[in-house]
Structures are given as structure tokens and as C-alpha cells.
Write a structure and sequence with these properties.
Layout (H helix, E strand, L loop, with lengths): L33 H5 L2 H10 L2 H17 L8 H33 L4
Length: 114
């Protein structure tokens, strides 16, 4: 059974923690400029020029381990830990799907048109 992520509650308040809670910001990109919103594949190209797929996996895993195992972690509850691992797996799948889209497009650019 898959538990919903929103059932987890952060029990620690972090100073300097940011949250984008403005209602107009829900379900809209916050970090993309107009050019990137018009062509989001630019982000894939830039991202995968900066990071190899395995690098991303290592960084994500490092973050997950830090979140789950650090003293005073926000994941002190077993459900929180499970939700973090579930989120990690979904982010990894998302990155792999983005990589496949990027890689496929790069390969198609290399194929000569007859």
C-alpha cells in the first residue's frame, strides 16, 4: 500500500526554510524564465550537460541518506522515512525519464537525414 506524502508532517521548524505558499504559485513553474517556459527542453539540455545520470543518482542518494539518518532529522518517524524513500524513487524515475527524452533527442540529431 502506498501512503500519501501529505500525511507526513514536519515536526522541526528550520530557520531560513523557504516555502512558496503564495496561491498564485501553485502548479506553475517558479524557476523558469519565459524562454525556458516556451521550450522546457532547454532545461534538460543544460541539466544533462552539467550532470551525468550516475552523478544525479549519487547526489540524490546522498541527500536521502542525510535526511533519513542525520541526528534531529525531519524523518524521525518511520512513515516520514518511508515517504522520503518513496519520494527519492519517484524523483529518480523522473530524472531517468528526462534523461531518456534528452538522450533520444540527442541521438536523433546525430542521425543524417536522407
Amino acid at each position: 500500500m502506498v501512503e500519501l506524502l501529505n500525511e507526513s508532517a514536519c515536526k522541526i521548524n528550520f530557520i531560513g526554510k523557504t516555502a512558496n505558499n503564495h496561491p498564485d504559485w501553485y502548479k506553475t513553474p517558479l524557476r523558469l524564465n519565459e524562454k525556458e517556459r516556451d521550450n522546457p527542453r532547454l532545461i534538460l539540455e543544460e541539466f544533462f550537460q552539467s550532470y551525468h545520470l550516475n552523478d544525479v543518482r549519487e547526489i540524490l542518494w546522498g541527500w536521502t541518506v542525510a535526511v533519513v539518518s542525520s541526528p534531529n532529522s525531519i524523518s524521525s518517524d518511520h512513515l516520514d522515512r518511508n515517504n522520503h524513500f518513496f519520494f527519492y524513487e519517484k524523483i529518480e524515475q523522473l530524472i531517468e525519464a528526462c534523461w531518456m527524452i534528452h538522450y533520444t533527442e540527442e541521438q536523433q540529431k546525430k542521425v543524417p537525414v536522407l
